[in-house]
Amino acid sequence: MVFRINAITAALFSVSAGLAIIPHPVQAADNSAKVPPALRAGAFDERCYSDVPPATPTEYSRTTPVEVSADKLNATRNGKAVYQGGVEVSQGNKYFSSDYTELDQVSRDVLAHGNIFYRDGQVTLKSNDQLTTNLDTKESRLDNAKYQLHGSPARGEAKKIVLDNQKKELTLSKARFTTCPVGQESWWLSASEVNVNQKEVFGEAWNATLWLKDIPIFYTPYITFPIKDERKSGLLYPTFTNSSSNGFDISTPYYWNIAPNYDLTFTPRVMSARGTMEQVEYRYMPELGHSGTIYTEYMSNDRKTGDSELNPRWLMNVRHNSKFEQGDLRWTLDYTRVDANDYNYFNELHPPVGQIVDNQLLQSTTAGYYQKDWNFTTEVRDYQILLPNTPAPHQLLPQLTFNQYHTADQYSFSFNSEASNFGNRSEQYKAYTGQRLHAEPAISVPILQAPGYSLDAESKLMATYYQQNIPDDMSSYYSSTLGLNHLASSVNRTLPEARVHGTMSFERQTAFNDQSFTQTLEPEVQYLYIPYKNQDNIGLYDTTNMQSDYYNLFSDRRFAGLDRISDANRISYGATTRLFDYDNTERVRFTIGQAYDLVAPKVTLLPNDQKQTNSRSLLSVRADTHPTDDWYTHAGTEYNTQTRKVSSGNGAVEYQQQKYTTQVNYRFVSKENFVVDTADDRRDVSQFGTVLKVPLNRDWQLIGAHYRDTQTGKSVDNLLGARYDSCCWAVNFTFERNNTPDNTTLTAKPETSYGLQFEFKGLGSVGNGPKYNLNTRLLPYSRPFNLND
Length: 789
What we know:
By secondary structure, the chain is mostly beta strands. It is built from 3 helices and 48 strands. It has a 26-stranded antiparallel barrel. The longest helix is centred in the first third of the chain and has 14 residues, at 6-19. It is elongated and about 115 Å long.
């Protein structure tokens, strides 16, 4: 029989509003800008959701029809209505069933027992005991219940569930929780009592114990857990590693949720071989478009240094971004610094912040105003050098740039300009300083423009003025070592440029192994002319050599920076061919190119550098293939056709399928091709590497990485790791041995580190060793394949 009785339905479904807020005990905001990683729940494999009902919105309203059915209905004189046998109540996607349901219309009490089942879009509940509720007080109790959250493996059971639907409070007595599939309960979290208030951000649990199978491994008399997408102050999970350099290394962070847009993490770090360090990270976002981080480390005494000049050891890192006027006006700050003589801070203490390039720490602030056709920017920049007895690059104090662009049907115009003030604060290496003004108008005109080919002509005028301050006691490093001993106090340099660049594109249909492809042939040619002007009287402020490759053949610059503009009377030529399959996936790309100098360029970076005698540039060849969906290959080389020697080269072969990855790679750079280093004892760079990630079965996975210097036969970095990853818990083990550079002695010393990490899915991580991925401490895993999928 089917009855439409809203009173009973209200009673039965009054439970649902509260039961739907049964929390995932570690649910937290997945927002890296606001929430520390240790607060986020572990990731679940898709296979763990196979038996989990999907989460759906509750589909009902007050006007949604309610249907009640039962085998038998009895109405008594004292105001009771009794439903017996196969009681079912449904409204929208909400469903309730039991063997027996009773409503006292006087006291407004509802009693249900026997095979109690409840389901909506958020939760499923089961109980073989009883449910009681009151329509007036809106208080409900469910005994000996099991629950399963929808859209999550989270499930559990409780001896008693008490719901105050008026106060939106939920209490679970003798509760258990896990994310393990049924029959695979590797761990449980139990508590004598759990309280949840829907109006609050966090729930509370008393006498909480973490169990591995039947073994208790952790107890706390009181714990809180997030039930909403917000944060709360408290201890985060500790991290630990062990290395030959620092010994046993443990960090125990405390997170302070100051406000929704401000937080601070204070982390005491104890290294058994060195001492204690304090780490503080303060993050702020005062309003939309403005955010930043201030990070500091301080160590009052490092026992291992044995040098009082290095104590205390400290680091400061500040990063800030601001946008005004809907993003047109922008300001950024990136500042990292350690103590002046602490050259090995990053090598020994491995801070999680700061960018090091060529042993230089960047300290920069920029501001700019950006429009569609023009922009104006300013930058102040300095560096800290992490090498002893090494001069620092020139400072920018400041640099102002103005760029303007205009495109019309018959031409395009650009104007680039800058004003730079270069400083130098080195007392040991007294250096020249100077100011530079540069203006560079350019106009480009299409000579031929049609589908399949184009020919453009471009003309530039590069006008530069230098005002240089040369001290009488300038360091011999600049005058003798670098040969900059003919600097002038003021220099005017005006150079015109003419360039003609043409491209063509041919296309044909072809086939290989009975599969059709589209093949392209894309030749290009360029003529560049810039007259010669002696520039040995100009200092080097921000200019260095450029690495040679195919794309650089068609550039108008041989040097990165404005202090040297090379003369050119050069023809560059090259071609690219590609293969696309029927899905327009690029399967093959082959590129070859070279340049021919009609007149050998005379401008060199340093006055005592050897002038180029070869009329032909390095021959640049690059090939990338993607023969199947799983395989990738890459090979590239720069070949000196005069000496018949390889200047640089690199290659890689990779197989990647789902969780399986393997790559073999190699790179070579001749010492004559180094961009920066000018030492006499240079050696070719020749490194072989391989990385591997192998799933042994559904739960076990191995990773490994090995990099070796083929010149010395020594290993550079080695990584070995294993991971067990089930639906409800995971454990990682990593072992790494690498040659850590010592910037003081300019040598390298071996370092060994290992870490162990446990993760209970839905509870976060306990202990963090080195991250479980293919990146080693010295060399990141990369995929050098330049193909369009």
